[in-house]
């Protein structure tokens, strides 16, 4: 299993799906572990009842069907599928509406879904998902990207409320890839994935959605900056190490 | 239970999967990948088969550089210099290196035979070009290795026929302790056209970088370029070719830098903005605003 995770860290991110299915076929008895630990780009399905897309993941899946957060129905229809309680479903509906607006403000397009379910500790778990296609044929407003994808998965474990305070544990994964292609300079492709965690104890005065939302917003900004400055920055540094820019070369003595 | 499930995947299929992982290893990481693949496959014979097929392909595609015994220099493992699966020609020293692909080392040397080398006429051009490229690579790449091969017309005796040379530049920076590896590969095909008395150059540049400290991010950049120049004496050809290559590669580096500079504010924005248009954080607590906005979004149909 360790070897499998090691491989996932090395294989180019754009091959994640192929690598994962390869591993699943080589290690069938580890499939549930692999599926829960390895993040894959998100898929989307259309909810035929209301004409809106929803995101598929392990958290809204039961057997081979997926539950839509908009209509709360399984696609394809499933007998005895798992559903959140009525109370939790109400929170889930509100979260989906608010998160859709958040998503529009930051992503200017894309799809989002929120799924909630009770856990064993009298708390609950919520999963916020975003999928954005930023390519110029997709929803990239400015047309810079030949290909661009941002997939975010935020899982928040919310503990039971004690004296007006609840414990929130957020695990976020962002997978992104972008390719610019402008003829003159060939193709430039960056892709990657990172995962981080954040724990907080917050007063429930303003409600769970508010607390989870703020944590997610902070986390996404951190991840975006990290990816851009640290991660992509390191690859940029590497290029300059391989072949320093002309100004550096000129300073070298003439052979 | 293990037997029933493993029977679903044939040995051949497992081998192909193992090969796929090996071939898709980032620069300088195949040894690490091979350890993981070996552990998962749990079948030494099958692994060895996969490795013996995958390593030579990987080594040639990555254009790895191996030290030749006797401190005479390095040999590049490329398809251009391949005489046999494990024999690679180094024209600068007129030696043939015997290579162990899986261990990625040069295990032996033998002098090149006359018919493995280009004719004296072609060699004059090749040798002058090699010297100029060596100079260029020494200046431009802190750790670059280069080689010039003849890919067509190596037996051409004198003027009157065309021949092709190829310039290969390979630089790798491996820093696994810093979780960062990278490689630069340039392949320049040069057609020496006798009748037209011109040289046609086609360059293919490929840069890769991998950073994997608590994450996995990779750069994959490619570029193709063309140029032409006149057919001159071997020395003059060499100087012109080297300067054309230098010019294009420097320009390419600058455009890579520009792509990186555009990332944070421009390119990235098509994926996710730094802040909403309002330039403030999202007002999660303001439910009144939500009710209004929610009605608005419903009316305008934005929520879709």
TrEMBL record, chain A:
* Single GO cellular component term: F-actin capping protein complex
One short Pfam name that applies is: F_actin_cap_B
MF GO annotations? actin filament binding
Protein location: Cytoplasm, Cytoskeleton
Q: What function is annotated for this protein?
A: F-actin-capping proteins bind in a Ca(2+)-independent manner to the fast growing ends of actin filaments (barbed end) thereby blocking the exchange of subunits at these ends. Unlike other capping proteins (such as gelsolin and severin), these proteins do not sever actin filaments.
Q: Which family does it belong to?
A: Belongs to the F-actin-capping protein beta subunit family.
Report quaternary structure and partners.
Heterodimer of an alpha and a beta subunit.
Name of this protein: F-actin-capping protein subunit beta
Which lineage?
Eukaryota, Viridiplantae, Streptophyta, Embryophyta, Tracheophyta
């Amino acid at each position: 299993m360790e070897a499998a995770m090691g491989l996932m860290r090395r294989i180019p991110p754009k091959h994640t799906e192929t690598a994962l299915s390869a591993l699943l076929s080589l290690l069938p008895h580890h499939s549930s572990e692999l599926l829960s630990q390895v993040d894959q780009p998100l898929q989307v399905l259309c909810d035929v009842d209301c004409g809106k897309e929803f995101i598929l993941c392990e958290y809204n899946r039961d057997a081979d069907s997926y539950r839509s957060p908009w209509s709360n129905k399984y696609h394809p229809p499933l007998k005895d599928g798992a559903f959140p309680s009525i109370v939790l479903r109400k929170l889930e509906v509100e979260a989906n509406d608010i998160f859709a607006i958040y998503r529009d403000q930051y992503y200017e397009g894309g799809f989002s879904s929120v799924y909630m379910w009770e856990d064993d500790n009298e708390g609950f778990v919520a999963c916020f998902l975003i999928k954005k296609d930023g390519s110029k044929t997709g929803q990239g407003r400015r047309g810079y990207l030949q290909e661009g994808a941002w997939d975010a998965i935020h899982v928040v474990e919310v503990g039971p409320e004690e004296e007006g305070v609840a414990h929130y544990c957020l695990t976020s994964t962002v997978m992104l890839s972008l390719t610019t292609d402008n003829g003159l300079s060939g193709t430039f492709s960056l892709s990657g994935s990172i995962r981080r965690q954040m724990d907080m104890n917050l007063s429930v005065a303003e409600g769970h959605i508010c607390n989870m939302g703020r944590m997610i917003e902070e986390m996404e900004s951190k991840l975006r900056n990290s990816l851009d400055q640290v991660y992509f920055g390191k690859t940029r540094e590497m290029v300059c190490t391989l072949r320093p820019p002309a100004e550096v070369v000129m300073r070298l003595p003439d052979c | 239970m293990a037997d029933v499930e493993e029977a679903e995947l044939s040995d051949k299929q497992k081998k192909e999967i193992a090969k796929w992982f090996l071939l898709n290893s980032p620069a300088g990481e195949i040894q690490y990948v091979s350890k993981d693949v070996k552990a998962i496959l749990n079948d030494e014979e099958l692994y060895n088969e996969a490795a013996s097929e995958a390593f030579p392909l990987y080594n040639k595609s990555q254009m790895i550089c191996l030290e030749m015994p006797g401190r005479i220099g390095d040999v590049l493992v490329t398809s251009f210099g391949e005489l046999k699966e494990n024999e690679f020609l180094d024209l600068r020293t007129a030696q043939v290196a015997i290579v162990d692909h899986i261990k990625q080392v040069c295990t032996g040397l033998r002098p090149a035979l006359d018919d493995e080398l280009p004719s004296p006429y072609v060699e004059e051009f090749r040798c002058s070009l090699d010297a100029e490229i060596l100079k260029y690579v020494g200046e431009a790449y802190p750790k670059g290795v280069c080689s010039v091969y003849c890919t067509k017309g190596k037996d051409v005796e004198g003027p009157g026929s065309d021949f092709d040379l190829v310039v290969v530049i390979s630089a790798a920076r491996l820093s696994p302790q810093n979780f960062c590896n990278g490689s630069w590969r340039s392949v320049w095909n040069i057609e020496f056209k006798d009748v037209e008395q011109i040289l046609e150059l086609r360059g293919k540049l490929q840069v890769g970088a991998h950073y994997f400290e608590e994450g996995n991010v990779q750069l994959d950049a490619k570029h193709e370029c063309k140029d032409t120049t006149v057919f001159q004496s071997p020395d003059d050809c060499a100087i012109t070719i080297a300067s054309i290559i230098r010019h294009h590669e420097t320009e390419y580096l600058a455009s890579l830098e520009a792509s990186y500079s555009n990332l944070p504010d421009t390119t990235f924005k098509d994926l996710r903005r730094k802040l909403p248009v309002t330039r403030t954080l999202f007002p999660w607590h303001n439910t009144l605003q939500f009710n209004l906005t929610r009605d608005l979004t419903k009316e305008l149909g934005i929520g879709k």
